[in-house]
Amino acid sequence: MKVRQHSLPVLQNLLKRDPSAYREEFEAIWRQYLAALEAFRLGGASQKKTRGDDERKLGDLATFVAHCGVHYKEASKRFATDLVALLKDRCATLQPDLRLRLAQAAALARSKGLLDPLVLADLCFELIRRVRDKALRQFLADHVVRDCKKASSGTLGRNLRRCVFKAAEDQSEANSAASARVAVDVLVRLYACGSWTDAATVNCLGRCAADERARVALGAVYFFLGVDRAPVLDSESSENENEGEKGRDLKNALKAVDEHKHSKKTRARARQTKRAKKAAKKKALGKSERAEPKFPAMQLLDDPHRLCDALLARARRQVDAFEQRVARLDLCSRVACTHRLQLVAFYSYMRRYLKPSQEQAPRLLALFAQACHELVPPDELVPIIRHVADAFVSDRNASEAMALGINALREVCGRCPAVLDEPEMLGLVRDLAAYSKHRDKSVVVAARGWINIVREHHPQLLQKKDRGRDKARSKATPLSFGADVATSSVPGEDLLRLYERGQLPEEFEDVVEACNDLEGGGDGWVDVSDGEEDGAAAADNDKDGWEDADSGSDDEEDEDGWVDVDQGSDSDAESNAGSDDDGDADEEEEVAPAARVLSAEDFARIKLLKARADELKGTATNRGLLSGADIVPEAVKRRTTVEERKARQVLDREKFQLKTHAGGKTNSEKRRTKNYLMVQKKKSRLNGLKKRKLGSGKGGKQQLGRDKRKRRRL
Fold first, then answer.
1. Which of 262, 160, 176 is CA-nearest to residue 212?
2. Which end of the chain is more exposed for a tag (fewer CB within 10 A), N or C?
3. pLDDT surpassing 80 at residue 468
4. Exposure of 66 in the CB half-sphere (CA atoms within 13 A)
5. Torsions phi, psi of 74, nearest 5?
6. Which of 521, 582, 607, 21 is nearest to 293 (CA)?
């Protein structure tokens, strides 16, 4: 039987086009592959030191069969099984190049459907655990990430998730830390790209953060420290790639909207056009696909208290480097801030690190202040506050340390105002307020911030001159520990009033459009009547949809559409008097709760308005998180190191050469660049004149005062 001779890449291309026409050629290559595989198996220990043509040939044949074996039944049955068995049995003795090529062939066989994804995933983690090969480990990790992305849902996705979780938490096998570290990296990458963002993934990483293996735990710890401010989705690159196409789609979608250019302009048509444009833009940009809420990882933890206890116990053992201990304490502080945990042992442990001589004092003070909240017992914080005040706020320390301590105490009292109500705080509050007259500006700024926070929560602790005009007679005190205020109205109801009146600022414009698009129509307010004159009340409805709660009297509506609910003759007199006194008083008056029956659309509007108001005030979900830069004094922030100044100079420099004189060289520059022989006699003459004037050298005579006054300038 005569077989046509082709190189493997050429034959691979021809075979993919017409598999049946090149069956004989493939069978010949298949026999060569089996012979090379059998020879390699019989080679024994000599394979450790050889990198000959046989290994290169085996790698080429395996790659060829992985590409084309899917078209032939015999190869598709046997190839994947033999390849997996070879990698499991000889992974430690294979040469690195051959081992990588065989792993690539296995990944290619999985993409062609010749190999089960779960079998390959188990093989990847086994190779990572048994072989110390950086290139192979990187390739296998990338393959697992790609495979999990493709099968993010369904049965296959759940099985792959279970496989990765097992590799991340398994401690039974020898050298399991390597595979666990790679599994943690895979989970972090899948969370970052938005494939696995559920609570199961986050809790698996949380269990890994409390792992006894340091390198595995630190990978999970740094994951939580890195995603709390930017929760999800590292998909900017994919969005930038499709930016041009989406721009064209948006332009075409807006062209299709009827803008009523050749018809009568009415308000209804203007609203209709605006809504149609918004819907077209939303559809073109694909906002509906990305409308699902994305939550930070810390909020998805099932048992945050157990995680914090494990992190704190590991830090107290002091078996890790100081930087690693600080990272664990940072995560513990952030979880306590997010979930409002009471970690009494955390504050006493942090006390030993809060010293001005500590190199990372700003960061550690920020961690301590970050873990404080209104649910922490104030008597647990008072000793640490006194320690910080004694250690930092003292004239024997530098002004930067004093300002740093005052800023940290300001953050602590702002987060836990009940501390100010403790009896030991009166003297401390006034002592710190007295630093507003300090000679250093950083200390003055910090002391004024301290006065402002005390003035806001407990102004009676301050002296009269520090309370200010607004708080001079205020008797406000912070809530005691564990106390709460019961609200008598729906939170955010005032924003709904402003929305109905059209008095919201410009920053709420997009939120107003979203509120208008909610279904249900009208304003959602329901009339409350005693049933006597419901028909008359319905006839007097205004155009805004507001309804009267009439009980037989002739009361009129307020100018803003709010209605009074009759409670008897006394309430009628009060409502009439209020409407006669001032029209603006109705806006400040609270309407009886019985008149505020809100619909589901109203609650949806309140939710949108509150979210925007919190965003404008800076009170987002992660508002409580702090960093060392937030409490560092302003004077320290302005300082830069030598390297930073040099880098800034290099960036700001326009051209890397000396800026010369604009109009040419000066006489002194020309004199310096002249040839020495040209100015030799002149220099000697000038030097002799100088010596004679100073009275030194041969023939020098003493100068009189008259001669000094008449001497010439040289």
1. 176
2. N
3. yes
4. 23
5. -65, -45
6. 607
With tokens 């190191």, the residue in question is: 641
As to burial, measured by CB atoms within 10 angstroms (0-12 exposed, 13-18 middle, 19+ buried), residue 683 is exposed
Residue 255, class by beta-carbon neighbours within 10 Å (0-12 exposed, 13-18 middle, 19+ buried)?
exposed
Rounded to whole angstroms, the Cα distance separating 505 from 617 reads 14
Residues with Cβ within 8 Å of residue 318, at least 6 apart in sequence = 325
Q: In the structure encoding, which two tokens stand for residue 706, read together?
A: 């008259």
Taking the C-alpha atoms of residue 259 and residue 271, their distance in angstroms, rounded to an integer, is 10
Give the residue among 193, 216, 196 at the shortest CA–CA distance from 206.
216
CB contact at 8 A, 442 and 633:
yes
Structure tokens at 210: 């409390």
One-letter amino acid for residue 322 of the chain: F
Whole-angstrom Cα distance, residue 381 to residue 358? 21
Helices 176-192, 117-130: crossing angle, 10 deg rounding? 130
Tell me the C-alpha distance between 509 and 512, whole Å. Answer: 5
Among candidate residues 401, 469, 460, the one with its CA nearest the CA of residue 433: 460
Confidence bin at 389 (pLDDT 50/70/90): very high
Other CB atoms within a 10 A radius of the CB of residue 375 amount to 13
| Structure tokens belonging to residue 244 | 């041009």
Measure the CA–CA gap between 678 and 578, rounded to whole angstroms: 102
Choose the most confident range, by mean pLDDT, from 160-174, 256-270, 530-544.
Answer: 160-174
**Distance separating alpha carbons of residues 22 and 24, to the nearest angstrom:** 6
> What is the pLDDT at residue 583?
43
Please report, in angstroms and rounded to a whole number, the separation of the first and last CA atoms in the chain. 109
Give how far the C-alpha of residue 266 lies from the chain's centroid of Cα atoms, to the nearest Å: 45
What pTM was computed for the model? 0.67
CA pair distance 381, 413, nearest whole angstrom: 10
Classify residue 462 by its DSSP letter: S
More confident site: 488 or 136: 136
CA atoms within 13 A on the CB side of 468: 13
- Cβ(594)–Cβ(333) under 8 Å? no
Q: Which whole-number Å values give the CA distances from 585 to 317, 494, 588, in the listed order?
A: 63, 15, 5
Do 294 and 197 touch, CB atoms closer than 8 A?
Answer: yes
Cα 380 from chain centroid?
A: 31
Residue 47 DSSP symbol? G
Q: In the structure encoding, which two tokens stand for residue 435, read together?
A: 């630093």
- Residue 173 DSSP one-character state: S
Let me know: does 402 contact 446? Beta carbons within 8 Å. yes
Tokens of 651: 């960036």
Tokens 């190049």 locate to: 97
Closest CA to 220 of 267, 183, 184: 184
Instruction: List the one residue out of 635, 558, 562 whose CA is nearest residue 592.
Output: 562
For residue 140, how many other CB atoms are within 10 A of its CB?
Answer: 28
In angstroms, rounded to a whole number, what is the distance separating the alpha carbons of residues 639 and 645?
A: 9
- Average pLDDT of the residues in 320-328: 92
Q: Tell me, what amino acid is at 272?
A: Q
- What is the rounded CA–CA span in Å between residue 644 and residue 438? 30
- Enclosing H/E stretch for 507: none
Radius of gyration, CA atoms only, the chain: 39
Residues 6 or more apart in contact with residue 689 via CB below 8 angstroms = 714
Cα–Cα dist 364/508, whole Å: 38
- 276, exposed or middle or buried, with CB in 10 Å at 0-12, 13-18, 19+? middle
pLDDT at 345: 92
